[in-house]
């Protein structure tokens, strides 16, 4: 296949699973190694899989590809498409939680066209939570204990323009025994009556939180301030916990994927497989 034009060979290689590209194909010959370590192949794979890049430069595309595969939203059913499925510890104050279609009465459209529904609270406190098992999502102990990658949390809330409401967010990083190792708790946000009903994003990034994190507990909720029967409280949607996305060492990565340690023996590890120190 060395006689094939490089552009054709890149298209053929792009059809091969990424793990095999790095741990098998790049060992075939110098030409394949250069293509696998180059940007063009990974730009094509990103395009094929719909992975977009916020940065304008084209540096470290192989790294970007692998990290993007880990950057999924760990919150399940963030917009109410499955009613209250996956949400636990549900507190149904007043008339309880309800799911409505955007924009809703006296509401505004969400900034993203991909979001179609939201959860809405009632005249007494409504809360709901999800506990994310990081190991079940593919983030094993050594990664969490040594690299301590950043964990990014986001939520969106809004009120009705004809009613005031309250909103709170609390996110905790938990140990194996569910001890609290780190916590972010917002202030109680008060949205006045006659507000503009616009959607507001709240976010927090956990970093350098120490070893032992195994779970993320995400809880949010609110109520209206007028105590009107029905659903006049805060609206929430598009909640997200973006999973750990730092780079792990080659040996740990191979062990996690049940690959032989000697696969890269005698070869220079590609950029995404080299060890990076934790950011502080």
From TrEMBL:
Residues 64-245 form the FBA domain. GO terms for molecular function: ubiquitin protein ligase activity. One of its GO terms (biological process) is SCF-dependent proteasomal ubiquitin-dependent protein catabolic process. It comes from the Eukaryota. SMART domains: FBA. Keywords: Ubl conjugation pathway. Residues 1-45 form the F-box domain. InterPro entries: F-box-assoc_dom (IPR007397), F-box-like_dom_sf (IPR036047), F-box_dom (IPR001810), F-box_only (IPR039752), Galactose-bd-like_sf (IPR008979). GO terms for cellular component: cytoplasm; SCF ubiquitin ligase complex. This is F-box only protein 2. The lineage of its organism: Eukaryota, Metazoa, Chordata, Craniata, Vertebrata.
């Amino acid at each position: 296949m060395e006689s094939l034009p490089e552009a054709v060979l890149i298209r053929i290689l792009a059809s091969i699973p990424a793990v095999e590209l790095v741990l098998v194909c790049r060992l075939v010959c110098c030409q394949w190694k250069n293509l696998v370590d180059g940007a063009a192949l990974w730009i094509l794979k990103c395009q094929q899989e719909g992975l977009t890049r916020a940065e304008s430069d084209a540096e470290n595309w192989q790294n970007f590809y692998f990290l993007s595969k880990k950057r999924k939203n760990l919150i399940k059913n963030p917009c109410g498409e499955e009613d209250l499925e996956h949400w636990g510890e549900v507190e149904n104050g007043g008339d309880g939680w309800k799911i409505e279609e955007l924009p809703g009465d006296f509401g505004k459209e969400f900034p993203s066209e991909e979001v179609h529904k939201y959860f809405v609270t009632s005249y007494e406190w409504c809360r709901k939570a999800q506990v994310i098992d990081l190991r079940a999502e593919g983030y094993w102990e050594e990664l969490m204990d040594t690299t301590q990658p950043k964990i990014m949390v986001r939520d969106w809330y809004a009120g009705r323009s004809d009613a005031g409401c309250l909103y709170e967010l609390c996110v905790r990083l938990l140990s194996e025994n569910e001890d609290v190792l780190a916590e972010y708790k917002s202030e109680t946000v008060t949205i006045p009556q006659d507000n503009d009903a616009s959607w507001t994003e709240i976010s927090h990034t956990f970093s350098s939180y120490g070893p032992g994190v195994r779970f993320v507990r995400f809880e949010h909720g609110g109520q209206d301030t007028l105590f009107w029967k029905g659903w006049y409280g805060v609206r929430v949607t598009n909640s997200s916990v973006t999973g750990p996305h730092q780079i792990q060492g080659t040996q740990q990565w191979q062990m996690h994927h049940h690959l032989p340690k000697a696969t890269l023996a005698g070869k220079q590890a590609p950029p995404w497989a080299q060890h990076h120190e934790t950011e502080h």
